[in-house]
Amino acid sequence: QESWTSDSSDSVISSGSDSEDQLFKVILLGEHGVGKSSLARIFGGVEDLQDVEEAGNTYDRSIVVDGEEASLLVFDIWEQDDNHWLHNQCMKMGDAYVIVYSVTDKASFEKASELRIQLRRARQSEDIPIILVGNKSDLVRSREVSVEEGRACAVVFDCKFIETSAALHHNVKDLFEGIVRQIRLRKDSKED
Ligand code: GDP
Ligand code: MG
């Protein structure tokens, strides 16, 4: 059941032909080194490509959540840096956002807050699913951000929260399933 196909980067630009099939665009945001690409590769099932530092990638995969299939297009393109056009595009095109920080890096946690504010500004009145992700939970000894701090931040910013470890594959599946559930919840409540 777990099928995936890699996607060409030109889909970055395509302005989502509104589709009957559920294709959800998920954008990964966060500072360099927090684990965005690692999480995306686990999702895409292409961890072997690990050492390839690429400018940007998208991963297209269908997953079954609560007995229903959903297709996610995950964009790991945020770090093509100093590219304002791309950053604006990222802020506009997502159906859902994953804001990643590292629990071992306080500065990345503070950056996550900034990104949340930027996102709110870009999408004003829209109620888009956002998940705050504290990655690298396996690095217990070098932790700089507690679970409580992460959770409290998510409450303030009105978004979901999860801690993950890409290294141990801990909670990565839950993260992406959680995104699908968040998107569905909002769609359902709109369709009354
Ligand atoms: P990105 O810059 O946000 O895309 O981060 P990367 O996915 O490239 O990861 C940066 C570094 O952190 C790499 O050396 C990864 O192997 C490492 N890394 C990513 N996630 C984890 C994790 O959950 N635990 C540990 N220990 N290392 C991680
Ligand atoms: Mg990366």
Give a structural overview:
There is one protein chain. This protein is an alpha/beta fold and 192 residues long. It contains five helices and seven strands, in the order ββαββαβαβαβα. A seven-stranded mixed sheet has the order 1-3-4-2-5-6-7, with helices on both faces. The longest helix has 19 residues, at 172-190. The structure holds guanosine-5'-diphosphate (GDP) and magnesium ion. Guanosine-5'-diphosphate (GDP) binds at residues 30, 32-38, 135-136, 138-139, 165-167.
The run of helices and strands is EEHEEHEHEHEH
Mean pLDDT across every amino acid position: 87
How many strands appear in the DSSP assignment?
Answer: 7
DSSP summary: helix tally? 5
Physical arrangement of strands within the biggest beta sheet: 1-3-4-2-5-6-7
Class based on secondary structure composition and strand pairing: alpha/beta
